[in-house]
Design a protein that fits this description.
It comes from Vreelandella janggokensis. By secondary structure, the chain is an alpha/beta fold. The protein is built from ten helices and twelve strands. The protein is about 35% helix and about 20% strand.
């Protein structure tokens, strides 16, 4: 069984929320009879670590197992786990515990930005407050500033082998191609369109640049449906050309476009507990306090 780390649950929760790492917050909300800890006890659980404790024993192990199962299956939101310590958990204290599991996805989306020029930098700066995990690449190893590389939810990488880099991207990544080299842009596009699990592909440049790329891709035998996945030029909201060509203005349209692309319908599990579960909790609380 995973042992708790020295970091407190509230410090871990702050760090994991800041860095966009999937995690679950387990809170003991009610108790009856003899229990290891009282309501209000909390612990934080990730796929690899746990922080703080609900008192130990089989019921805590079952809580960790349930949290990791929700994380693995990406069942984010609120979940209520009920434990009869003498029944489900086989513990000698024999009380009853309700645990509220709040399962957080961490970053809502992964965005790969290929190019650390003026537009790339503005995209990274504008994306900083958003719940995205940013993967930033450039073939010039000295181009990332120390201040930028320390930004939360941002990892900076030197771009080497293009096909290997693209192959290692997380599934459902949104890719933006805007390097300083047309040849590098083309190599990235050819690699990206062959990954069916890439969420979206955007290419910076003029209409003539994309027309040239399209013709070359067709001549090399790439599937027409895969070629059509590429958006170019990126940031052309509602098919309207932007007259302001400053890096900041272009970056604003790109980030706005990404907000639409990353928007997802609300899952029923993120809307809270079922009324019956809430009524059961309130009833248990009244019984315990009486």
């Amino acid at each position: 069984m995973t042992l708790p780390t020295p970091e407190s649950w509230h410090a871990a929760l702050h760090r994991l929320q800041r860095d966009g790492i999937p995690h679950a917050l387990a809170t003991q909300v009610t108790s009856a009879g003899s229990t290891p800890r009282e309501p209000g006890a909390r612990m934080v659980i990730t796929e690899e670590a746990i922080f703080d404790t609900l008192g130990g024993g089989t019921f805590e192990w079952q809580t960790i197992s349930a949290a990791r199962d929700y994380l693995y299956h990406q069942r984010y939101g609120l979940h209520l786990e009920a434990f009869s310590l003498g029944g489900r958990s086989g513990q000698c204290c024999g009380g009853f515990v309700n645990i509220l599991l709040e399962v957080f996805p961490g970053s809502e989306a992964h965005v790969a930005i290929f190019g650390a020029g003026h537009v790339g930098r503005e995209i990274v700066n504008l994306s900083a407050p958003l719940p995205w995990q940013l993967h930033w690449y450039d073939s010039r190893s000295d181009i990332f500033s120390e201040q930028t590389s320390q930004q939360s939810r941002l990892s900076c990488h030197t771009l080497g082998d293009v096909h290997r880099t693209v192959a290692e991207l997380p599934p459902r990544t949104h890719a933006l191609v805007l390097t300083h080299s047309h040849d590098q842009d083309y190599a990235l596009i050819t690699a990206l369109i062959e990954r069916d699990d890439v969420a979206s592909i955007g290419l910076i440049g003029s209409d003539s640049k994309w027309s040239s790329f399209q013709g070359r891709l067709q001549r090399e035998g790439h599937d027409a449906g895969k070629i059509e996945r590429v958006r170019s030029p990126i940031g052309r909201i509602h098919a309207t050309k932007l007259n302001n060509k400053t890096p900041y203005a272009i970056a604003m349209t790109v980030v706005t476009e990404l907000l639409w692309l990353t928007d997802k319908p609300t899952s029923p599990e993120t809307r809270g507990l079922e009324p019956n579960a809430v009524r059961a909790l309130v009833g248990d609380t009244k019984t315990t306090q009486s």
